[in-house]
Structure formats: C-alpha cells, structure tokens
Amino acid sequence: MRTRDVVAEGLYIASAATRLTLKNAILVHILAEGEDFDEERYVPEAREALLALAAEAEDDAERTERERKTARGRYSDSSGTHDYRSRDVRNLRRRNKQSLHVAKELRARAENDVELHKLIADARDAAWHEVAGNIDRVLRIEAARPDLDPDYDRMRIARMQALRLVDLPRLRSRRRSMQKQQELREEGVEPADVQVARGGFDPAELE
User: Fold this and answer.
1) Angle at Cα 19 formed by Cα 13 and Cα 20, nearest 5°?
2) Does pLDDT of 173 surpass 60?
3) CA 180 – CA 167 distance, rounded (Å)
4) Are residues 106 and 53 in contact, defined by beta-carbon separation less than 8 angstroms?
5) How far apart are CA 73 and CA 126, in angstroms?
6) pLDDT at position 70, please?
7) Which of 72, 109, 114, 158 is most deeply packed, by most CB within 10 A?
8) What is the C-alpha to C-alpha distance for residues 116 and 58, in angstroms, rounded to an integer?
9) With the C-alpha atoms ordered 77, 81, 87, 89, is the resulting torsion angle positive or negative?
C-alpha cells in the first residue's frame, strides 16, 4: 500500500476516534449534566483529542525507528512477528515515515478551527442520532403511554435535551431566514422558500 493511502487511512481512523470521544462528551454534558449545547465548549476537547492521537503516532514512529536500527545487521531467521531482521529495514523505514506524516497532519488539524468545528458538528449529529434512536426504541416498547413507562420522566428529559441539542438551533436559523424573507418582501422582492434541514422536525410546528 502506498504511503499516502496509509496516511489517509490513519487520518480517517483518527477522525473517527475523535468524533466518538466528542460524541460521548456531548452526551455526558447535555444529558447527564444538563448543559446547553455550545459548540465552542468542545473546541479544546477536540484539539486535545487530535493532539493525543498525534503523540501516539509520534511514539509509534520512535518505536519503529528503534526497531529499524536494531534490525540492521541481523541476517538470521526471525523468531516472531516483531523480531525484525535486515530484510525488514525498508518496511520499518516506511512505517516510520507514515507515522510521522499522520502525526504532522493531526497537529495541523488541531490548529485548524474549520476542521475542529467540523468534527464537533459531526459528533453532535452522531449524539443526536443515538439519542433519537434510544427514544424511538423506548417509545415503541412502551407504546408511548406514560403510565406504563417507568422511565417516562427520564426519557422526557432526554427528549427535551435532544431538542436543545439540535432542533432549537435550527429553529433560530429558520426564524432568521423568515425575518430576511419579510424584509425582502417589504422591498418588493419575492424570496425563495425556506428549506428545512433533513433529519429534523419542521420548526413551524412550534409556532
């Protein structure tokens, strides 16, 4: 496999791990601790997660370099998977280079606000889908009857937190769009219809 393909795969895995870390943090802060969702609140956590993965990649590069130096001059048969010999030097050098590339890219992303906010937005969506899925399963099992659902109060809190997590920001965005439409109509311009984002409820239902 080419170096750029290995690096791309490593970055993909690192991004997935970071999103998982952020998703779990969002669920804890929003559902367990009752916080409002604030994207900026998770920027330091996203950066820290990427830097931690970069440090792991750098550690792997250092370990591989030590193994490469040890393998030089060894020409006997290997006794195991990690018992490297001179014929493995080239592959170890390539692995070292790949790990350093991954670490460098992760550190660059950790300082890129656009990348950080994208990770946070993806983690928020993942958290919302998990909450929505749990709510749907509970409602199906309990037939949506509060008197038969012992977890109704807890799940009601979860539903309200899910509303704050995703739908209220969409509601605010729609209201701003509607205000802009009204201003355009007053100026004699017919605006385009407001589009409701997929995966959410129509905020007009709350009006």
Assistant:
1) 90
2) yes
3) 20
4) yes
5) 50
6) 79
7) 109
8) 21
9) negative
